Amino acid sequence: MDRIGSLIDSTRATLISARDHYQDALDYQRQGNWNGAQVNYLKALDIAHQVHRINSTKADVTRTLAQINQDYAGLLEKLGRYADAQATYRRTRRWLTNGLLR
To answer: How far is CA 90 from CA 33, 47, 56, 69, 87, in A?
Structure first.
């Protein structure tokens, strides 16, 4: 496989991993396990950020990152971390505005 194809496959697999952690975070949140949810949101965000640094021009990467971030902000609100939640919401809006309008 050529180098570009390998990079695309790697990016796709990594984005799937981020989405898996995101789904785990949602599951933990539904169960009321805030700690488990937060750990998985942070893992998902870390992975999604890595993918975004590699391929920030793809809309699905930006949308995935923004969706995870938005739901994580909701968890932060539930935990009473309002300043962190507001900062997270602002980052989400910035990614959606800048990333999807390229």
So the answer is: 25, 20, 18, 10, 5
